[in-house]
Amino acid sequence: MQIVVCPRKDLRSQWYTNKNWFFDPHKIFITIAGLADGCEYPNPYLAEASDKSKILRLMFDDVTEREADNPALHLFNDTHAKRIQEFIDSFKNSHIWYDGVLYVNCAAGISRSGAVGYCLNEYVNNNKENYFYYNLFKEQNSHIQPNPMVKRILSNELFGEIDYGKVFENE
Q: For 135, phi and psi rounded to 5 degrees?
């Protein structure tokens, strides 16, 4: 599965240029918004899509562990991670898993969507069947700076708890 991390403005431009692009049966979307973005609804351009099963909307802010005690911000949590895994796993037995395109977007397309895209690339494409897409993700998304908290929580959901003490012992 090709995974593309992009800012919200890229999808907005596509919407005004060619609305039919959104209805391609090979495309699925994870769209992220947060109150700090000034956006209360994740990507309104996808609201008109006829097949809502191909869209996952999430609300969480671009927050690090240091800012986690701010009650005004929506934190990424285990529930978000479970929803992402359930969403992506729902395509395992379909053509999308092997030759579809997943678009992951947030306001800037760098941190939150970067973390989700990074983790899903490891989960879906780090095997010999999808290795082309695994490398393509790394080439096309060199701009991302994955949010460490999102990356940690989502990785734990997708791959199980990691004992970082043991990881560093072996280095």
A: -70, -35
